[in-house]
Design a protein that fits this description.
Radius of gyration: 14 Å
CATH topology: Conserved hypothetical protein from pyrococcus furiosus pfu- 392566-001, ParB domain
Order of helices and strands: HHEHHEEHE
Number of domains: 1
Helix content: 40-55%
């Protein structure tokens, strides 16, 4: 089966930042989470391989049975552009936090683990 060409937006969607902040507030104080989001808004887009993002995060791959992953897979097949990921380095724990885009990452990985994924990272 031929790998689909994955299309990406040039920048994260506006609603990605509040979603990332809500997630970050689970592990950081509200002020620290807000500061990370402000830094993410200013960060430039860079790229990392899907497999490397997973390795750095220590998270498990969600399967295609997950409804959100399946929705993103459908977007990919339909050639709809996906929003770049928002990532934060947790230097204390030496882990990568996927603040927004976990389901997109899982969907992309099911097609191509070597796919370069645009991200903002702080």
């Amino acid at each position: 089966m031929k790998k689909p060409r994955i299309k990406w937006l040039s920048k994260p969607q506006k609603h990605d930042y509040p979603a990332a902040q809500a997630y970050l507030r689970l592990t950081f104080e509200p002020r620290a989470a807000k500061n990370l989001i402000e830094k993410l808004r200013r960060a430039k887009i860079t790229g990392f391989a899907a497999k490397d993002i997973f390795r750095a995060s220590g998270l498990s791959l969600l399967g295609v049975s997950n409804s959100h992953v399946q929705e993103r897979r459908t977007q990919i097949v339909d050639r709809e552009a996906l929003s770049p990921l928002l990532l934060c380095r947790d230097l204390e724990r030496r882990k990568l936090i996927i603040a927004d885009g976990y389901h997109r990452l899982c969907a992309v990985y099911t097609f191509d683990e070597d796919a370069m994924i645009p991200c903002k990272i702080v």
